[in-house]
Structure prediction request, 201 residues.
Amino acid sequence: MFEEFIPLPVVTLATGTSILQPLHALPERVTPESPAVDSMTDLRHASAVLVRAGDTVAHARERMRNRGVRMLFCVDISGHIEGLVTLNDMLGERPVQAAQQGGMPVADLLVRDIMTPRIRLEAFRIEDVLHARVGHVLASLRSTGRQHALVVETLPGGVQAVRGVFSATQIERQLGARPGAQTPPLEVARTFAEIEASLAH
Prediction:
């Protein structure tokens, strides 16, 4: 079956061979005055983690665990956004309320039962983010009480696409707040209080 394919030539690894890193690796440390893009996960260089609205919440949580993320994009069969779901959504009151309203066990909940639908999602424009600072993003997250914020850009033809994601946890880590913490805090208010306390010292 593979007789028509010629094996590729090989070389040995030279002394000092390095590993290429993503073109837009985020810096380890930022300040509130740093460019906002220094804390934005750019989806041109990092794959978004996806889930279907019809998947079970248990499956979505396992996907988060396996990929080391705390937010999933919910997409339809065409890859269009239907909503998003965060770990906070899974651990908060939303699953209990959704199960009670639907008259079903929490274990039977689907992602669509607890996700934030697209119609309720807000995003920053990439044009604004490119001129903003990390402090602007923090102020925006704090004003909405959210852990994540999306960044959109308009593609040729007027089609909107999600370009990036801001995470309060990521920014906290880059600012050096709560060094050595193993698990990010679940309450946004506590997150920002700790960030501000850390920056004050």
